[in-house]
């Protein structure tokens, strides 16, 4: 087992290579009360032994769980079962589950302990780590949220064996992003014939840990984790969420690389490496040309817009992020034209 320490608003560890049944039993034995939040589709895969101090809340699958009505159901269960500040929540699932459970933990009694056991690659390397929690509003994702770090992140690599190819590929977009912004070795590992998931995940988690240790509440430095995400989020919404988050981010990464080539001196070989790596994992790297007006409108409502300027993260070279604070529409149009 590998352990990565994170020091943000609290200190906690990401444990990689655990046995999920053992960790669940451990939490049950030491918690006064434990609420386990798990999507319905995982209840056959993960067996939870009954216990007088354990309460299991089944939630819808995917983004449907990040809804105020589901949150109210959790709040009600916490109330009925008299959860106090020394009681705990365990999220088992993908990124949507960690977002939901973490927000429930952040808001109950102004904050109780929670743990997360991610079951998808995207959650293991991204959503479960860093303390961003949220539910969705009727028209947008993640506008209602809080920063509230988990007390532990528990990664069982065996869950990767149950993932479909599309889910695994979608998670790879976040891995590739971390390689380009901070750790070239990740990219080298992804180009090998046999993937060492333990090392890949460990190095990716270390990238995110280093960033959030420096800037937990995203005052600026943490924004490098949004490489590829400004356009990626817009594409995700424009597709009416038919594209997975990682698939939309994949397209956004190629766009950001092209923007970096235009404005920051990123070499053509590094732009090409973006395309090749993402394609190797069957991720999309193009989007419809006629969707740019819609994407511009969506990007203008992005949380990170400042002074009516759409902001991006670019690269001058691998491992060297650049903050692009004022990119005009002509520059966006030129870079977008290269991904159509």
UniProtKB/TrEMBL annotation:
<dbReference type="GO" id="GO:0009073">
    <property type="term" value="P:aromatic amino acid family biosynthetic process"/>
</dbReference>
<dbReference type="InterPro" id="IPR030963">
    <property type="entry name" value="DHQ_synth_fam"/>
</dbReference>
<dbReference type="InterPro" id="IPR056179">
    <property type="entry name" value="DHQS_C"/>
</dbReference>
<dbReference type="InterPro" id="IPR016037">
    <property type="entry name" value="DHQ_synth_AroB"/>
</dbReference>
<dbReference type="InterPro" id="IPR030960">
    <property type="entry name" value="DHQS/DOIS_N"/>
</dbReference>
<keyword id="KW-0520">NAD</keyword>
<dbReference type="GO" id="GO:0008652">
    <property type="term" value="P:amino acid biosynthetic process"/>
</dbReference>
<keyword id="KW-0963">Cytoplasm</keyword>
<dbReference type="Pfam" id="PF24621">
    <property type="entry name" value="DHQS_C"/>
</dbReference>
<keyword id="KW-0028">Amino-acid biosynthesis</keyword>
<dbReference type="GO" id="GO:0005737">
    <property type="term" value="C:cytoplasm"/>
</dbReference>
<comment type="similarity">
    <text>Belongs to the sugar phosphate cyclases superfamily. Dehydroquinate synthase family.</text>
</comment>
<keyword id="KW-0862">Zinc</keyword>
<comment type="pathway">
    <text>Metabolic intermediate biosynthesis; chorismate biosynthesis; chorismate from D-erythrose 4-phosphate and phosphoenolpyruvate: step 2/7.</text>
</comment>
<keyword id="KW-0170">Cobalt</keyword>
<dbReference type="Pfam" id="PF01761">
    <property type="entry name" value="DHQ_synthase"/>
</dbReference>
<keyword id="KW-0456">Lyase</keyword>
<dbReference type="GO" id="GO:0046872">
    <property type="term" value="F:metal ion binding"/>
</dbReference>
<dbReference type="GO" id="GO:0000166">
    <property type="term" value="F:nucleotide binding"/>
</dbReference>
<dbReference type="GO" id="GO:0003856">
    <property type="term" value="F:3-dehydroquinate synthase activity"/>
</dbReference>
<feature type="domain" description="3-dehydroquinate synthase N-terminal">
    <location>
        <begin position="57"/>
        <end position="169"/>
    </location>
</feature>
<keyword id="KW-0057">Aromatic amino acid biosynthesis</keyword>
<keyword id="KW-0547">Nucleotide-binding</keyword>
<protein>
    <recommendedName>
        <fullName>3-dehydroquinate synthase</fullName>
        <ecNumber>4.2.3.4</ecNumber>
    </recommendedName>
</protein>
<keyword id="KW-0479">Metal-binding</keyword>
<feature type="domain" description="3-dehydroquinate synthase C-terminal">
    <location>
        <begin position="171"/>
        <end position="305"/>
    </location>
</feature>
<dbReference type="InterPro" id="IPR050071">
    <property type="entry name" value="Dehydroquinate_synthase"/>
</dbReference>
């Amino acid at each position: 087992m590998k352990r990565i320490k994170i020091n943000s608003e609290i200190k906690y560890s990401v444990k990689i290579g655990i046995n999920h049944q053992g960790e669940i039993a451990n939490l049950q034995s030491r918690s006064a009360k434990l609420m386990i939040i798990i999507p319905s589709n995982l209840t056959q895969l993960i067996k939870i032994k009954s216990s007088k101090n354990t309460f299991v809340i089944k939630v819808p699958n995917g983004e449907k769980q990040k809804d105020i009505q589901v949150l109210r159901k959790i709040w009600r269960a916490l109330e009925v079962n008299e959860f106090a500040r020394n009681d705990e929540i365990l999220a088992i699932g993908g990124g949507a589950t960690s977002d939901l459970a973490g927000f429930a933990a952040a808001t109950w009694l102004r904050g109780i302990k929670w743990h997360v056991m991610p079951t998808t690659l995207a959650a293991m390397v991204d959503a479960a780590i860093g303390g961003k929690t949220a539910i969705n509003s009727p028209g947008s994702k993640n506008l209602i949220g809080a920063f509230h770090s988990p007390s532990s992140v528990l990664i069982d690599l065996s869950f990767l064996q149950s993932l479909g190819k599309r889910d695994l590929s979608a998670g790879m977009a976040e891995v590739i992003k971390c390689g380009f912004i901070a750790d070239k070795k990740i990219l080298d590992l992804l180009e090998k014939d046999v993937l060492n998931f333990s090392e890949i995940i460990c190095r990716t988690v270390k990238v995110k840990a280093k960033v959030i240790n420096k800037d937990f509440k995203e005052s600026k430095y943490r924004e490098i984790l949004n490489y590829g995400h400004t356009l990626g989020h817009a594409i995700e919404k424009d597709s009416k969420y038919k594209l997975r988050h990682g698939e939309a981010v994949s397209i956004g990464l190629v766009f950001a690389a092209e923007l970096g080539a235009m404005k920051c001196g990123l070499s053509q070989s590094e732009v090409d490496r973006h395309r090749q790596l993402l394609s190797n994992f069957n991720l999309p790297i193009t989007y419809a040309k006629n969707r740019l007006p819609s994407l511009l409108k969506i990007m203008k409502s992005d949380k990170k817009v400042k002074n009516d300027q759409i902001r991006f993260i670019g690269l001058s070279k691998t491992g060297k992020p650049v903050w692009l604070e004022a990119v005009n529409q002509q520059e966006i149009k030129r870079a977008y034209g290269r991904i159509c």
